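Researcher: Here's a chain I'd like modeled. Treat it as a single chain, no partners, no ligands.
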Amino acid sequence: MPLANLNRRRFLALLGAGAAVPAIAACDGMAAQAKSYPVTYSEAQWRKRLTSKQFRILRQAGTERPYSSPLLKEKRKGTFVCAADSHPLFSSATKYDSRTGWPSFWKPLRGAIGKSTDYKLGYPRTEVHCARCGGHLGHVFNDGPRPTGKRYCMNGDAMVFRLT
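Model: Modeled as a single isolated chain. Structure tokens:
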């Protein structure tokens, strides 16, 4: 019986150590994924350029409350651009109602975004950021509509809509 308990303890210890790996990877991933972008400002300059909501989302990888963005109901023909640097991100032609509470698209514009791995929730997700300034936009999931099967679930406060 003591051997069985030892094995169970060892198993639980290993399980606990395995659960810590995503948190450790998240810390390492931040440094590893840091890169330079064509548009850069100091933190103080970003704070001056952006609203507090935009700064929290774009520069601190925050998330807006679901169903809070006016862009959720935007149906006009146009382009969704980065709120930080006006870089074109998504065409209105690729926007759809994902019923998640965030503006969703099935395809970004060419060269508009970058991706990285995010472990904030303890498991890997694909983070989407602006290719020009590195601002956090949201995440992409594999449960979207045809033709891509992708759901680019974006924070509306990270974008501005421009009519075409």
